[in-house]
Specification:
39% of the residues lie in helices and 18% in strands. By secondary structure, it is α/β, with parallel strands linked by helices. The strands form three sheets. Strands 9-14-13-15-16-18-17 form a seven-stranded mixed beta sheet, sandwiched between helices. It has a six-stranded parallel beta sheet with strand order 2-1-3-4-6-5, sandwiched between helices. The longest helix has 17 residues, at 72-88. The mean pLDDT is 97. Bound molecules: thiamine diphosphate (TPP).
Length: 518
């Protein structure tokens, strides 16, 4: 057995069963090993940012890692932006970066670079393994590091000679470090604060936002004590819909977030960050915590969130308190002009039960939250790290993680162009992904941000935010990658196209012509 074969067997034994990849010469033994070892599905991506984003989407939905195989420093660099988003989502990802054979470094061949330096920025663990006999153990360790709470990107650098060398040994799954127990004093303090009844807010992180039962428990705590329950602005995964506890998120725009938090005297974070402005603006505060408000970090991300919530429930009497739940409510099917609002209504009216929404609608997404709140239960994925181009790859990985569920990717045109190649993988693998491209011909949000940061644009500046010349033809682009596509200009046509796509297997792209809101 060579090193590569031992690695794949080890990964499969640890339930890492999908590898998104864009390989090169130094990874050929890993690729060849896919046929020697059963249980590992290889998924080809035509750009590394698609592979890394797909691994993020897979992890968010499956709750366990996929592997990503990348080609030396440049391949890793191409995949970095979506590894950044994966890191912010606390997604477990096992990144394997092929490298030159160890003896080859002396020649500084063209693809040689400092891989570890590129990896460190996004990785919770970086390790180079040079001995084929240790490759399996390194793979097992990579999985354990990736899944250890709160989840992260573990990067294994795999020189070609460690891959092709004989003497590979399969390693048993390694035990991840357990999440740190919650601090009893902090639970007592938070419980006393909540019981005292002063204006308080609880901000919950991904562990709660993505778990309907935990979220219901926190919602009950909120109802029992009068505390407002909020989610972070961009959760990795929200479990939401009719019959479940709802979750208002801290607004992206600082002014709105300040309104949400106005008058709050105690803020309790549970596996979440204290709220801060997404960007700095001249003369405006970065910290969104109201003046004089005390912040208690009950547990940090990666500590035992479940235990912390259980501790609060033990300390606070919630008997007889009803868990607030969202009622079933769908918007009327919209007619007429296609706008952000009518697009949202069409989605809200038709979203299938157990759909997975990959939301990168950006400015057009403003109405989506409200329009879908009372839809049948579904999962909602958002852009955790602010690095655009996440939606199409994440939708791809989500579809591989959840066959049988419809994935709806609502994707702004500018963001789509970063990782459009995801469509090819969707067509190749026959994935049930419906992509709605919101074509507003603009980097619209940046038009708004220009004014917010106080910059004065001239025509040259405005040209940098304009995608209209030439107009992007997403129908042609999709068809060119094997995905059936159509363009819609009215709300009823969008509804018809959505309904048709939800009723048929495989990918489809709908290009929605929506005027820019800015
Ligand atoms: C990797 C990366 N590059 C650049 C940006 C800066 N940026 C933020 S929003 C944006 C344009 C968004 O346009 P689009 O996706 O079409 O959405 P719209 O604002 O039109 O709704 C850009 C370029 C970013 N966030 N991430």
């Amino acid at each position: 057995m060579n090193g590569a074969q031992s690695l794949i067997r080890t990964l499969v034994d640890a339930r890492v069963e999908v590898c998104f990849m864009n390989p090169g010469t130094s990874e050929m033994h890993f690729v060849a090993a896919l046929d020697d070892v059963t249980g590992m599905r290889g998924v080809l991506a035509l750009f590394e940012g698609v592979a890394t984003g797909a691994a993020d989407g897979y992890a968010r939905v499956a709750g366990r890692p996929a592997a990503v195989l990348l080609h030396l420093g440049p391949g890793l660099g191409n995949g970095l932006a979506n590894l950044h988003n994966a890191r912010r989502a606390h997604s477990p990802v096992v990144t394997i970066v092929g490298d030159h054979a160890t003896h080859h470094h002396a020649f500084d061949a063209p693809l040689d670079s400092d891989i570890a330096t590129v990896a460190r920025n996004v990785s919770c663990w970086v390790h180079t393994v040079t001995d084929p006999a240790l490759v399996g153990a390194a793979g097992a360790e990579a999985v354990a590091r990736a899944v250890a709470a709160p989840g992260g990107v573990a990067t294994l650098i795999l020189p070609a000679d460690a891959s092709w060398g004989e003497g590979g040994l399969v390693a048993p799954p390694a035990t991840p470090v357990a999440a740190a127990a919650p601090d009893a004093n902090r639970i007592a303090e938070a419980a006393a604060t909540l019981r005292a009844g002063a204006p308080a807010a609880i901000i919950v992180g991904d562990d709660i936002a993505g778990d309907a039962d935990l979220l219901a428990e926190v919602a009950r705590l909120g109802a029992a004590t009068g505390a407002k329950v909020l989610g972070e602005t961009f959760p990795a995964r929200m479990r939401r819909g009719a019959g479940l506890a709802g979750l208002e998120r801290v607004a992206y725009l600082a002014e709105f977030a300040q309104m949400q938090l106005d008058g709050i005297e105690h803020l309790i974070t549970i596996g979440a960050k204290s709220p801060a402005s997404f960007f700095a603006y001249p003369g405006r505060p970065s910290d969104l915590v109201p003046e004089g408000c005390r912040v208690t970090a009950l547990v940090e991300p990666g500590e035992d969130v479940r235990g912390a919530v259980a501790g609060l429930l033990d300390a606070i009497d919630t008997s007889g308190v009803e868990t607030p739940r969202v009622g079933r409510a769908r918007p009327e099917s919209p007619v007429g002009a296609l706008t952000g609002e009518s697009l949202a209504a069409a989605v809200g009216a038709l979203l299938p039960e157990e759909a997975i929404v990959a939301d990168e609608a950006n400015t057009t997404g403003l109405w989506l939250n409200g329009a879908t709140a009372g839809a049948p239960p579904h999962d909602w994925l958002s852009l955790t790290g602010g690095s655009i181009g996440y939606g199409m790859p994440v939708a791809t990985g989500a579809a591989i993680a959840a066959p049988g569920r419809r994935v709806l990717n609502i994707e702004a045109d500018g963001s789509a162009m970063y990782t459009l190649q995801a469509l090819w993988t969707q067509a190749h693998a026959g994935l049930d992904v419906t992509t709605v491209i919101v074509n507003n011909g603009s980097y619209a949000v940046l038009n708004m941000e220009l004014a917010r940061v106080g910059a004065t644009p001239g025509p040259k500046a405005l040209e940098m935010l304009d995608l209209s010349e030439p107009a992007l033809d997403f129908v042609a682009l999709a068809r060119g990658m094997g995905v059936p596509a159509s363009r819609v200009t009215t709300a009823e046509d969008l509804s018809a196209a959505l309904a048709a796509s939800f009723a048929e297997p495989g990918p489809r792209l709908i290009e929605a012509m929506v005027p820019s809101a800015f």
